[in-house]
Amino acid sequence: MNKHKIKKEISFQKFMEASLKVFAEKGYEKASLDDIAREAGYTKGAFYIHFSSKEELFLKLMKSRLEVFKQQFLESFTPGENIEDTVRAGVALFVHLTKKDNWAPLYFEFCVNAIRNDSIKKHMADHYQDWIETIIFILKQSKECKSCKDDVLKQLAATIIALLDGYHLQESISPNSMSQDTISKSIVNVIHSIC
Amino acid sequence: MNKHKIKKEISFQKFMEASLKVFAEKGYEKASLDDIAREAGYTKGAFYIHFSSKEELFLKLMKSRLEVFKQQFLESFTPGENIEDTVRAGVALFVHLTKKDNWAPLYFEFCVNAIRNDSIKKHMADHYQDWIETIIFILKQSKECKSCKDDVLKQLAATIIALLDGYHLQESISPNSMSQDTISKSIVNVIHSIC
Amino acid sequence: MNKHKIKKEISFQKFMEASLKVFAEKGYEKASLDDIAREAGYTKGAFYIHFSSKEELFLKLMKSRLEVFKQQFLESFTPGENIEDTVRAGVALFVHLTKKDNWAPLYFEFCVNAIRNDSIKKHMADHYQDWIETIIFILKQSKECKSCKDDVLKQLAATIIALLDGYHLQESISPNSMSQDTISKSIVNVIHSIC
Amino acid sequence: MNKHKIKKEISFQKFMEASLKVFAEKGYEKASLDDIAREAGYTKGAFYIHFSSKEELFLKLMKSRLEVFKQQFLESFTPGENIEDTVRAGVALFVHLTKKDNWAPLYFEFCVNAIRNDSIKKHMADHYQDWIETIIFILKQSKECKSCKDDVLKQLAATIIALLDGYHLQESISPNSMSQDTISKSIVNVIHSIC
DNA sequence: AATGAATGAGCGTTCATTCAT
DNA sequence: AATGAATGAACGCTCATTCAT
């Protein structure tokens, strides 16, 4: 039992959780290391034991949260009997996860920074690719898409993501413009029309 | 003809144009008033003749650019003979405007700040409302949607916006995942399925 | 009459004088910009109106003080009737200037930083070259050195500088080990022996 | 034989050697204990087992290196048959030692700190006194200085040190301005002229 | 004897804002 | 209307020192 390592892991996690909160509340630039350290229950100096810079923390947090989001989705997702039920379950789960942990401000903070910073952009692009593949995998298990070509499915998956992202954004700024039902129906329709 | 006022209007516009560029390049926080003033061809002190704070500038710029975007859309938009052509024209125009003037980083900068700041959020919400109405107005001119109920059209318009926003975001981070054609077809299908 | 420029020049000079004092007292690294600004009667922020970095200030101060030292020497130096009087006058003047304005700690601070920093080193090397030429010029006016070869005079001048630097250093650490008289005599002797 | 003590002595020496290197490269202030510990092959915490502070290390290093320099000089120095050979041998040895172990930046770092810090100054003054006595001892073995008065020899020794220090400084900043031969000749001449 | 997590004070630098000119 | 010197509060980062392990 290595107490040092355990302690380090605990503080690392506290910093990650604290930064999740502070970045979500204030955005990357306005979140100060003082804020984050205070929230984590440490001093600013301690921060540099665990991270080499603010940017590194942001990147690590981003990787971690995007991964956690995907894991939580995959763990809880259960496809329905038909494509409609499957989509409905997926959308419901997406909406649910989206409301947890201050996800919206953090996610769009990632996006905005990705647009201007190439190394973040690369990461977000990978993340999109991941989701495209995940969605294709799910779609392929339905009778509707079983025999669709891969490039068609790719476009379809990207469209579904666009719808969800756009819904998420709209919901964050002007809640209740769209119902979950509308989103689900639209997705199902797009699937039927393309496949 | 008041020379003072004309001069003032000119420098105001120069600051607006300069800040459009600098905010798009660096984001709100990292854009310094020095950068903006230099870009505008003035000094920092001059800034405060036209704006009372950096935040005010950002808000004014946001209002102005969102308005300009809409005006440019409305001016150039010509509905086609049928809904499909109309949608295709609208999407093409949206994509075109979206690529001008470094629009993506600025637009999503607005969105991200809206999520965290209530007065900005209010503004963006109004902007969404505006677009919803504009889209409803366009849809109503087609035979497909002529007799649709208003609340159905609202959901439809919001869905179209979500698709476009989501496409815009994806395109900014990971270009060429989706074709314009896909987006148009999806919109047409959603229209058909809902109306 | 440009008040802005005058004001700027005054503050610039105050910063230069303040840094002269603070660098001499604390050395380059331990002298903080807060110290220097306080000593100058300004705040830290004002510093960056006049200098782009701490290092730039140090370099400017170094150039300025080395130049001032040389100017003061040249202005006050009057050769004697013979080489002995000339040397005696020169040494007395050197010793006098050396005791003004906290010169020793500043000068050796320059030297130490020169050893480790190439751009400073280049500057100090130029300064040495300057002094060698100045001393050669003075020596050439004496009948003893009138017809000496240039490379011999160069070695002679460098030796004289070594003696003065070495004396200056020793005097700064362990005062009164050597008399001015000794130094003068030694220089005269070296001149006689080489020329 | 105490294993603990031997181990302690070894790590002490490693820290001394490491700090010799790091102080020479970066100077006192910019040398961090992290740098030194890493160079020594330990961690920062271990440092405080052997030294109570950074300043103490610097002082111990200074004492040790000044002593080592003198020991190395005395061990290798062999007087010649006449004063000229003796001086030539001494100068050659001085120049040789001076080029070893990054001596210049360290030595002048000592000097600069001595000028500003009284306890270091005291130490350097003792060091100078030591060298004066050493040089007097050497000079007294020559027929030229055998019967010189002590205070005359003291001035002479101080002058020789000044020349060597000045040469060392000049050589460190602007190499090859003076030849070793010139320095030797000058010293011999000063000896002849004073004694 | 040695590690390494944590502190806390300090530093160089940036920048929105003010105001005399 | 415009300049630009000055402020003052932050901020990211460093580092000598402490202490539980």
Automatic annotation (TrEMBL), chains A, B, C, D:
Residues 9-69 form the HTH tetR-type domain. The keyword Transcription regulation applies. This is HTH-type transcriptional regulator YwcC. GO terms for molecular function: DNA binding. Gene3D superfamilies: Homeodomain-like, Tetracycline Repressor, domain 2. InterPro entries: BetI_C (IPR039538), Homeodomain-like_sf (IPR009057), HTH-type_Tx_Regulator (IPR050624), HTH_TetR (IPR001647), Tet_transcr_reg_TetR-rel_C_sf (IPR036271). Coiled coil: none annotated. It holds the Pfam family TetR_N. SUPFAM superfamilies: Homeodomain-like, Tetracyclin repressor-like, C-terminal domain.
